[in-house]
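Hey, can you fold this?
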Amino acid sequence: MVISSIDLKDGHVVQLKNGKNLVLQRDDADKLIADFDSYGEVAIIDLDAALRHTDEKGNTANTQLLTSLLRKGNVRVGGGIRDVKKARKLISLGAEKVIIGSAAWNTGRTDGDPILNVAFLEELVQAIGKQRIIISVDAINGKIAVKGWTETANISLIEGAKEAEKYASELLFTCVEKEGCMQGTDMEQVRSLREAVSCRVVAAGGVNSLDQIIQLERMGCDVQLGMALYTGAVKLDESFVGCLNWDKVQGMIPVIAQSPAGEVLMMGYATKEAFQKTFESKRLTFYSRTRDCLWTKGETSGHYLELVKVRADCDRDTVLATVIPHGGVCHTGSWTCFSSAADEKSSMERLYAIIAERFANPRPGSYTATLNDKRVREKVMEEAEELCDEAESREEVIWEAADLLYFVSVLMYKEGVTWQDIYNELDRRHKEK
């Protein structure tokens, strides 16, 4: 599968040739990550941090932008991560994985010394877990490249990779001499690396076509793309479909539809043409085996499924589609095909959506629409007091807690705070410890 890359330098999104020469510069990072995350993971690289262009606090011209992107997708982040404190902070802010480059290597070693910075990597594994660590095995002419690719260490790619996988769930290999050149990557180097290690391998540097992406996928490697995406040489929707294991499923991929809250809604099958129509229309489309034709959910009922993103499973033979349902999903009228309930289950997100709708389209007699800023804050304090001082039985606690959560949700809406913002803060606190 393709991992889209957003490289940051001087506060801009850039693409460099051989890691040095500026080829492209953009200022639409929010749009890019929204588009990229629809089809897979996103790598965000702080090039200034990699080159040590930092202030006394370790920040760069990209820090604020990078931080704002961390929870806008399935993000891995790299560039200048040289200590456990910074890695832990990035994870707490929303990064799913961190990419460790120069800090992983014992570049000043003499004969007999380990090739890795073992003390640092062991501390890092202890702090955030091996599953969250990616080690860069970038290479120039077969030697590990360090310090923003400005130097090479006396460590061969294969030797370094075999040691590095002891401390990482993935290895990111960039063929530096091919990076940004759009001339194809070094397939033999990638093949040798893939055969040498058992962990996940992500290849980058020079990949310039759908055919090469599919070759690397069949080899068992993912691809991290930059220049090919920005120039339009490769399209993410075509890459997603091309990387699926069509031989295994005989032309039809099972697709599981789930709501943004994670509730399973339905399952169907999709052909390549069905995926193409899904991506073009942004409405989930299947292949009807009984009618032998494409079928867009909701084309007769109007209860369509608006596409948010797709993810392939590890075997590339099943797809999970996150969708926004517009009406009941099942043909019986039920909210999902796995329940007879007519409505979406109650949740904080559903409550928030109802509150938002009441303010946007107030109905006659709507209590919610009458709540101004002063009154809602008074009600939060009032309900909190009742919960703490008056609720004695289990039923009373439930009743008062429901009242409190309702008014808290109204206050959040008025302040532009979502429940996802609250979950993110709780996640940050959990991971920071």
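Oh, and this one too while you're at it.
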Amino acid sequence: MTLTKQLSAILPPDEEAMRASKTRWDSIAKPLGSLGKLETEITRIAGLTGSAEVDLSRRAVLIFCADNGVVAQGVTQSGSEVTATVSENFTRGAASVCAMARAAHTEVYPVDIGIAREMDAPGLIDRKIRFGTADMTEGPAMTREEAIRAIQTGIDLVGELKAQGVRIIATGEMGIGNTTTSSAVVSVLLDKPVETVTGRGAGLDSAGLRRKIAAIRRAVESNRPDPSDPIDVLSKVGGLDIAGIAGAFLGGAIHRVPVVVDGFISGTAALVALRLCPAAKCAVFASHVSAEPAGRMVLDAIGLSPMITADMCLGEGTGAVSLFPLLDMGLAVYREMRTFDAANIETYTYFED
């Protein structure tokens, strides 16, 4: 089935399941709506999955790993070899997100979608599209066909995880240079000046930041990506990790699995996904707001607000995984608390001003 046909088959949220979830929340012996986003997000999950019996007991973080040719322009503090090293660490449980995932009872699935060398790491899912992207300052980062294949990879992986019993997915990434590609994509899609959406990434000094901004400008000016065509933007100035994550969000809507936005790079992928298919928003859930300059800008653009504000910008899926314990606590109340009737308390009522 083509990507267009898959996206056209996405269904809206199940209104009956959402009403049942809302009714359950409103019956619990506590002030109405007092758990805020814990209530609304669980109700959104009910609408997506089609059941008010929300089950998030098995969860995963899907980490897309890829290299970016623009690193040759001196836009990063470390070299591309770090992408492979950290990707291998994911398979050993030796990265930051792995420690957080263990605490949150989350399985870690790292994916080689475009690491710039051959990998021999048991546990690393091999879906390599190409050995890193080209330097976008010298031409398109990848072909349109490669971008579509990367998107389809993300869609397919969500379907595979759902078939294995996974009920919610956090998105993560690993790719030296990917705040540069994300800033380029956001600059084009949101029609914002490059300097407004570009930050220091993993610790650039001022000279490095100037090189980064200049490289993005050259890439945008030379490639002339079409802001009305998200795949064109992705292929010319994006990255394979961004494309894979965008596919994961679309896959969430297709396969009815909630998929969680991590930080700036993941948020950029969500922006791409929703520009391709606005109906996919039903599957996209925001975790935190990145400390990157355009972190909140991207969330505002896709119409979602974060549940966590902690000035995080590590990536890897760390912010997205942080959401799971919060959802667990919300679900504990949703499932275990007594109703107004059972507690012999007069039912609260909504009042309008």
